[in-house]
Amino acid sequence: MRYGELHRRLREGSGSREVAGWAARTLSRVASGSLDVAGVLHPLGFLCLPVERSGRTGVCLHLWSPELPPPASTTSAWHCHSWSLLSLLLYGRLGNELGELGEPEEGTGMRVFEVLSRDGVDELRATPRTVRVSPVDGGTYTRGDVYTLPAGVFHRTVVAGEAATVALGAEHPGLRDLSLGPLGLGGHRVRRRRQGAGRTARLARRAAELLQED
Fold first, then answer.
1. How many CB atoms lie within 10 A of CB 207?
2. Pick from 180, 149, 147, 179: which is nearest to 163 by CA?
3. pLDDT tens for each residue of 104-146
4. Is the CB of residue 210 less than 8 Å from the CB of residue 22?
5. Is 121 helix (H, G, I), strand (E, B) or coil?
6. Which residue, among 125, 123, 132, 133, has the nearest Cα to 185 in the 3D structure?
7. Contacts within 8 Å (CB) and 24+ apart, 114-120
8. Closest by CA position to 100, among listed 138, 126, 142, 46
9. Fewest CB atoms within 10 Å of the CB: 5, 106, 190, 199?
């Protein structure tokens, strides 16, 4: 299945089992090497397996595992996408917190950074804007749950232990990827780390096994 079919099945609300089956087969192919997908460690601490990219849409499998190195984010877990997200939790437990932004008191708050990603490098540009962020419960999800996040909404995701999602993204022209960081932090670059074929295959195999458990 490709983006359009996956999106339709998840939006209908009755296709989670079929999408989970597709994910299990895809992970098994990554594990065996029959599907060549380079696993990339996201700065927020999960392994991203980019399965499809077509125009303004894309499909990724996201894996959280204690085997992965600690998150490498230089800003914070608060961020917002320039694309809308439709996601299926394959296994594990995941919580989303939404960020309500307000005006900070002088000398407090967090700075807004614009994130430009290209060729495995995130360029974080410090903007003049500073904000105060207040967390709001955005829901807790377990195996088989489908959730959405609109483009432009600040949020942070909390995962404990092992978890995996199918993530469908659709870009919204004119919006930017943003992150919140310390006031004194300047612009800088962060290189995303590709994981070796061995670790990628091992984590994909483990995910396929967990997904096939009842």
1. 30
2. 147
3. 988 899 999 999 998 889 999 999 999 999 999 999 999 999 9
4. no
5. strand
6. 125
7. 114/176, 114/177, 114/178, 115/79, 115/176, 115/177, 115/178, 115/179, 116/177, 117/177, 120/40, 120/191, 120/192, 120/194
8. 138
9. 106
Model-level pTM? 0.94
Task: Summarize the confidence of residues 77-82 as an average pLDDT.
Answer: 97
> What is the per-residue pLDDT across 151-162, written as a single tens digit (0 to 9) for each?
999 999 999 899
Q: Which tokens go with 123?
A: 């360029």
Structure tokens at 145: 């749950």
Six-digit token string for 106? 């002088």
What domains, with CATH codes, occur in the chain? 3-212 (2.60.120.10)
Q: State the pLDDT confidence band at 14, using cuts at 50, 70 and 90.
A: confident
